[in-house]
Amino acid sequence: MRKINVFDTTLRDGEQSAGVNLNASEKLEIAKQLERLGVDIMEAGFPASSKGDFQSVQQIARTIKNSSVTGLARAVESDINTAWEALKDSAEPRIHVFIATSPIHMQYKLNLTPDQVVEKAVQSVKLASSKFSQVQWSAEDASRAELPFLARIIEQVIQAGATVINLPDTVGFTTPHEIGHMFSYLKEHVPSIDKVIMSTHNHNDLGMAVSNSLAAIQNGAGQVECTVNGIGERAGNAALEEIAVALNIRKDYYQAETRLTLKEIKRTSSLVSKLANMPVPGNKAVVGANAFAHESGIHQDGMLKNKETYEIITPELVGVNESSMVLGKHSGRHAFKDKLDELGFDGDKTQFQQIFEAFKDLCDKKKEVTEDDLFSLMTETMTDA
Ligand code: KIV
Ligand code: ZN
């Protein structure tokens, strides 16, 4: 099994979600939970972006012991110096420095030629590696960069001291096939690539962030960047919980594992949702309220016979107590009888049939039939008898 490092960026890219603003104590609370979850690296913020973020990164770097803590910096001397001040007290000082690499970003955003970008990247990595023991360099917008240019700049930043090379799909544009090709191409065309860890960082604009992350892992990424609940800029980042559980459930296929304590997933998701004030959609994979809820009679019947008929993830694996059978108009007799038994039903077949029919009528009138409703139906029928 290959070991994949989980780089969590909930506190940096995740906090870039529109409308999200975490204060220092909220960031620290999330950082402690990420440490319990077992992320290898957490990106605590962007120290040069504000005084508050600087203090928060510094506090997290001084507190967290079992995960490596990092902070973002542009390829600018003052950003790197500020990041050093914020992170120097951490157990293993680590920086994340980036510069844009696609033609559109270099021309319009940076107003620099490709050669000037290479020069700035090399200078920034040299400065960073004179201070930090771990230097991650990111090729922003890598998925829209030209591959020969990427190969050239990556070789040079490795020579300058980078230890991790991250290749972001900054605008969520790529596909699993293309990202696989990018990783394979760079493994073949960057002479020093074996000296570093390759990393993947994907956005979800076309809903492919998790698939792209998994494809990158299959093609050589040893680090995956993600956020809890997939929060982040625009449509968000690759969801940590989905990647972690996919790797675990499909070990046979990916042959890769993380060191995460998966049963902390639900708690982490709920904490981030509450503090970021971003509700988790009910149908969200792994952590949505409906992820382990079964409604139709056919599924409920299967579940009551053998849970593996309709559940590929056990709820306990991710810290959810148990799966649930939701009673609604699609429910069948099997699950309904089970529920009545749980409520103390001791009637005969005819009474059961009467209650079942009354329940189906009620389902056509009400969105949700509660346990209290069932109890009333049951007592009415039993008293009439
Ligand atoms: O999406 C992106 O390109 C980023 C970089 C700063 C790594 O978040
Ligand atoms: Zn990003």
UniProtKB/TrEMBL annotation:
<keyword id="KW-0028">Amino-acid biosynthesis</keyword>
<feature type="binding site">
    <location>
        <position position="201"/>
    </location>
    <ligand>
        <name>Mn(2+)</name>
    </ligand>
</feature>
<comment type="subunit">
    <text>Homodimer.</text>
</comment>
<feature type="binding site">
    <location>
        <position position="203"/>
    </location>
    <ligand>
        <name>Mn(2+)</name>
    </ligand>
</feature>
<keyword id="KW-0012">Acyltransferase</keyword>
<dbReference type="GO" id="GO:0030145">
    <property type="term" value="F:manganese ion binding"/>
</dbReference>
<comment type="function">
    <text>Catalyzes the condensation of the acetyl group of acetyl-CoA with 3-methyl-2-oxobutanoate (2-ketoisovalerate) to form 3-carboxy-3-hydroxy-4-methylpentanoate (2-isopropylmalate).</text>
</comment>
<dbReference type="GO" id="GO:0003852">
    <property type="term" value="F:2-isopropylmalate synthase activity"/>
</dbReference>
<feature type="binding site">
    <location>
        <position position="237"/>
    </location>
    <ligand>
        <name>Mn(2+)</name>
    </ligand>
</feature>
<dbReference type="GO" id="GO:0003985">
    <property type="term" value="F:acetyl-CoA C-acetyltransferase activity"/>
</dbReference>
<protein>
    <recommendedName>
        <fullName>2-isopropylmalate synthase</fullName>
        <ecNumber>2.3.3.13</ecNumber>
    </recommendedName>
</protein>
<comment type="similarity">
    <text>Belongs to the alpha-IPM synthase/homocitrate synthase family. LeuA type 1 subfamily.</text>
</comment>
<feature type="domain" description="Pyruvate carboxyltransferase">
    <location>
        <begin position="4"/>
        <end position="266"/>
    </location>
</feature>
<dbReference type="GO" id="GO:0009098">
    <property type="term" value="P:L-leucine biosynthetic process"/>
</dbReference>
<keyword id="KW-0100">Branched-chain amino acid biosynthesis</keyword>
<keyword id="KW-0479">Metal-binding</keyword>
<feature type="binding site">
    <location>
        <position position="13"/>
    </location>
    <ligand>
        <name>Mn(2+)</name>
    </ligand>
</feature>
<keyword id="KW-0432">Leucine biosynthesis</keyword>
<keyword id="KW-0808">Transferase</keyword>
<dbReference type="GO" id="GO:0005737">
    <property type="term" value="C:cytoplasm"/>
</dbReference>
<keyword id="KW-0464">Manganese</keyword>
<keyword id="KW-0963">Cytoplasm</keyword>
<comment type="pathway">
    <text>Amino-acid biosynthesis; L-leucine biosynthesis; L-leucine from 3-methyl-2-oxobutanoate: step 1/4.</text>
</comment>
